[in-house]
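2024-03-11 09:14:02 INFO worker-7 job=invfold-0412 stage=load source=structure_tokens
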């Protein structure tokens, strides 16, 4: 948790979310979906409708034996405060967002 706070501090001074994690000696995304897959299997659930924009999450769950029945994208409202974060997710982590130009705000 302390490193997560340090990553936020790095983002406040200009690092993107990926570089902040890398500077702290972490991978861009270290989440492990094994516990989720094990819980789903224990409940007898073999496929899911997944709310995500993250293709790595879909691939990871698939490798763990959870079939993806449907990916339901999450919408994001783009603001001055999150535009760089969202574009980092798209450009560096291959996230899939359906971004509508009307949502953009001018960034100076």
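2024-03-11 09:14:09 INFO worker-7 stage=emit residues=108
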């Amino acid at each position: 948790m302390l490193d997560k706070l340090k990553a936020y501090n790095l983002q406040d001074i200009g690092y993107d979310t990926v570089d902040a994690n890398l500077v702290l000696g972490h991978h861009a995304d270290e989440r492990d979906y094994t516990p989720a897959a094990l819980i789903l299997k224990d409940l007898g659930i073999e496929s899911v409708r997944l709310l995500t924009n993250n293709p790595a999450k879909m691939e990871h769950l698939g490798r763990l034996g959870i079939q993806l029945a449907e990916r339901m994208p999450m919408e994001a409202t783009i603001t001055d405060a999150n535009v760089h974060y969202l574009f980092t997710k798209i450009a560096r982590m291959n996230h899939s967002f359906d971004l509508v130009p009307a949502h953009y705000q001018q960034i100076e």
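2024-03-11 09:14:09 INFO worker-7 stage=report msg="The mean pLDDT is 87."
2024-03-11 09:14:10 INFO worker-7 job finished
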